């Protein structure tokens, strides 16, 4: 492939990695990871609410990795409450999983920036054979993509398997019990998915630029060279 086309591909990949780093950083500080609604089941059972009356007992909830907001509604009007995971909810959430999600987000940002730098260096500089060359580009893209997948898996398990929304909704609730009425992942969660796909796309761009996958090298050349050496 001509050098100009390779530079264009590497510049594109570098800009995509930089955009992923910025997008992940914005997602980490956002409260738009999960949106949903919670039902005040205790209040609904007390008045035997159904149909249109049930909406008076449905509150809203949204949260991210550090903070969020829930609207407590038990038939007497909604009351918004702000909360933070650290240190308020640290006792009731699966802390090890939650901290792991934040840690992998940090790793994803760091390696996305590293990958962007090396992509630009390969576009405008003289690449080395190891970390600056094809092996390094595949490595940074693979690590970033893997971190994005781990973030989604861990956070999904925290929300769905450990019922994170219900734990937040029932925090410091002695009288009423809340159940998850509806729940869906919001923009920041899908941003991580897009970033993971972009890093996978970057690996394809490296291959399209003419670089073979670094861990699959042909042994035919070494065999032929050895046979020639024996002849002489």
From TrEMBL:
Organism whose genome encodes this protein: Setophaga kirtlandii
Family: Belongs to the clarin family.
Primary location group: membrane
InterPro entries according to UniProt: Clarin
Membrane topology summary: Multi-pass membrane protein
Any GO BP: equilibrioception
Pfam families membership: Clarin-2 (PF25807)
Gene from which this protein is expressed: Clrn1
Transmembrane segments: 97-123, 135-155, 189-209
Keywords, sorted A to Z: Membrane, Signal, Transmembrane, Transmembrane helix
Name of the protein in its database record: CLRN1 protein
């Amino acid at each position: 492939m001509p050098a100009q086309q390779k530079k264009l591909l590497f510049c594109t990949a570098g800009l995509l990695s930089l955009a992923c780093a910025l997008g992940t950083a914005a997602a980490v500080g956002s409260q738009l990871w999960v949106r949903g609604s919670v039902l005040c089941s205790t209040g609904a059972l007390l008045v035997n609410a159904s149909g249109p009356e049930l909406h008076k007992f449905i509150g809203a909830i949204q949260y991210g990795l550090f903070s969020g907001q829930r609207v407590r509604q038990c038939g007497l009007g909604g009351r918004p409450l702000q909360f933070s995971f650290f240190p308020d909810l640290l006792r009731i959430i699966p802390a090890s999983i939650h901290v792991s999600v934040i840690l992998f987000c940090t790793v994803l940002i760091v390696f996305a920036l590293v990958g962007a730098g090396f992509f630009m260096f390969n576009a405008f500089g003289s690449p080395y054979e190891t970390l600056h060359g094809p092996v390094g580009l595949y490595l940074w893209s693979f690590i970033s993509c893997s971190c994005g997948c781990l973030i989604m898996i861990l956070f999904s398990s925290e929300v769905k398997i450990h019922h994170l929304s219900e734990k937040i909704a029932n925090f410091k609730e002695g009288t009423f019990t809340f159940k998850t009425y509806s729940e869906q992942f919001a923009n920041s969660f899908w941003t991580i998915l897009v970033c993971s796909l972009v890093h996978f796309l970057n690996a394809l761009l490296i291959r399209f630029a003419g670089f073979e996958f670094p861990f699959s090298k042909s042994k035919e050349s070494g065999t032929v060279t050895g046979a020639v050496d024996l002849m002489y």
